[in-house]
Amino acid sequence: MPQIIRRQTVGLALGGGGARGLAHIGVLKTLEAARIPVDFLAGTSIGGIIAAAYSAGLSVAELEIMALQMAKPSQMMRLLDVAPMRRGLLEGQRVREFLADKLGDITFDKLHIPLALVTVDFLRGVECQLTHGSVLEAAMATSAVPGVFPPVEIEGCMMVDGGLINNVPANAVKALGAEVVIAVDVAPIFPREISPDAAQTLHQLPAPFPKLTGNLYQALLIMTAHTVRANLHEARPDLVIQPAMPDEISILLGFTHASEAIAAGEQAAQRALPKIQQLLQPSLQRTVQRIFSGGR
Which sequence positions are flagged as catalytic? Predict the structure, then answer.
């Protein structure tokens, strides 16, 4: 009886990073062009939103069009509904409407690709991997940056951005069943060198963000970078892709550089293709050897 050659399943973990996360579109674009399958997806924050949209059936071309539309300041401003004196600087209703238009009312069990979205239970301080229920609610929760968007209530828990604990969820995609795990980290890398001139203007953000937000933002970036390093050391993905992006593609204000972010993702994935193909090849070789050795 002929034996079937079984390839290893591939999982992609897309990390948080605001506008820098648009690089994930470039990574997916390159993998599709190289016919590298994606069997499982996990994501945090913007990585979760892109993973959700792709799992729901949106094509890379559609994702790229969405990103380029958001690169227009006028389009971006339409999503900002300032909510003073509430649990976030932004109310988040316009973002919800935008995502609802793309995702509809789809649930996890109806997705084309198995998906896990990572959030944090804000009161208990624990990581939550959402794999059932409303994809829209989970997408809102994984991107609910504390202080910017209000928490999202899911099953009685107040959920916020998963980047607080697990910004590049390699463990989540592995838990879904992926045998080859590729993690994509789009956040700034620390420690790093920085010029004195750049230090003077570090993260000066426009209204409605108060001036202290820049310092809090920098602190969050540093903490996230060190947490990601520890998490990836524990999860041990087979490959980590880190697109090279200039500082002007910032987490909060880099959406006007959408095309550059996407291109950075493409280039990083293209550089990683030989390694990815090598990771997939040994399984095939071992299977062929078993066939010719009589299945031993």
Answer: 45, 161
